[in-house]
């Protein structure tokens, strides 16, 4: 799905990000899935689970947060580290990035022009559970918001803790992570991200340490059945075929497992 260079570069920067930020650090997206399923996937398939190209970080922001609290928030401190220490630059309205030279593996120096096929854009995506009205008085960007993330911060039963790179990480529980993946599935405009979501949903159901029957019961606690059905209805046969090539599972098996989430 992704080139080895891309996922290895992303993983190396993930280590740098984790080492640079204050713990606990909430990891979302593809790397969160990786940490939850990789051991079981590797034991079964003899190879690591799919890596990610982007680094997704989760932050809790209260709806009624004050300006002073925003200035002292974990998010504000993290943004300063991302910009000043790690030297990532704002990209668009919600992301941070730096360009990597594929041939050398080093950062492309600012102002230097190299062909598109010789560089890789490395992204960090800060994701929040709420965007308060006074947010833009402190921040110059609009982060991705995922309201479901609030469940991980408000209830310790909805997150897992692990130690990685000598830092404490928080990961959403598999059922909550599945819900976020389903939630994003219907809005995907890039094919590779949609296929990765399908792979991640299947992997969390099949390879996490949680029993699949329990996950089937828990996911609907975060998403209404009509929302689950609406998102999963966007999955086409061609999507399943491409996911099958990545997972080494048949399209029928992937379809059967994922669509068990749709309860009649």
Summarize it.
With 264 residues, this protein is α/β, with parallel strands linked by helices. The protein has helices at 4-20, 29-45, 67-71, 74-85, 150-154, 174-185, 191-207, 212-218, 225-232, 237-247, 251-258, and strands at residues 25-28, 54-59, 89-91, 95-101, 119-128, 144-145, 159-164, 167-172. It is 45% helix and 17% strand.
Polypeptide structure, described:
It is a single chain. This protein is an alpha/beta fold and 264 residues long. The protein has two domains: 1-172, no CATH class; 174-264, no CATH class. 45% of the residues lie in helices and 17% in strands. It has eleven helices and eight strands. It has helices at residues 4-20, 29-45, 67-71, 74-85, 150-154, 174-185, 191-207, 212-218, 225-232, 237-247, 251-258, and strands at residues 25-28, 54-59, 89-91, 95-101, 119-128, 144-145, 159-164, 167-172. Strands 1, 2, 3, 4, 5, 6, 7 and 8 form an eight-stranded mixed sheet that branches. A hairpin with a 2-residue loop joins strand 7 and strand 8. It is globular. The relative contact order is 0.14. The model has no long low-confidence stretch (mean pLDDT 93).
């Amino acid at each position: 799905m992704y080139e080895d260079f891309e996922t290895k570069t992303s993983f190396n920067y993930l280590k740098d990000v984790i080492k640079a930020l204050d713990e606990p650090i909430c990891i979302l997206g593809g790397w969160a899935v990786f940490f939850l399923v990789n051991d079981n996937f590797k034991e079964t398939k003899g190879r690591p689970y799919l890596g990610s190209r982007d680094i997704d970080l989760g932050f809790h922001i209260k709806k009624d947060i004050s300006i002073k609290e925003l200035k002292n928030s974990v998010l504000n401190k993290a943004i300063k580290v991302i910009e000043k220490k790690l030297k990532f630059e704002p990209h668009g309205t919600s992301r941070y990035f730096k360009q990597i030279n594929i041939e050398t593996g080093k950062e492309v120096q600012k102002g230097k022009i190299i062909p598109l096929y010789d560089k890789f854009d490395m992204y960090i995506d800060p994701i929040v559970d709420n965007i308060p009205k006074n947010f833009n008085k402190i921040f110059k960007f609009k982060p991705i918001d995922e309201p479901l993330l609030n469940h991980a911060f408000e209830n310790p039963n909805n997150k897992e803790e692990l130690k990685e790179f000598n830092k404490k990480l928080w990961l959403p529980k598999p059922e909550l992570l599945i819900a976020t993946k389903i939630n994003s599935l219907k809005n995907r405009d890039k094919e590779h991200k949609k296929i990765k979501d399908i792979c991640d949903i299947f992997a969390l159901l099949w390879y996490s340490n949680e029993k699949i029957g329990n996950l089937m019961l828990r996911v609907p606690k975060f998403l209404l059945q009509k929302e689950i059905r609406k998102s999963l209805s966007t999955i086409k046969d061609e999507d399943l075929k491409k996911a099958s090539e990545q997972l080494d599972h048949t399209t029928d098996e992937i379809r059967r497992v994922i669509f068990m989430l749709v309860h009649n």
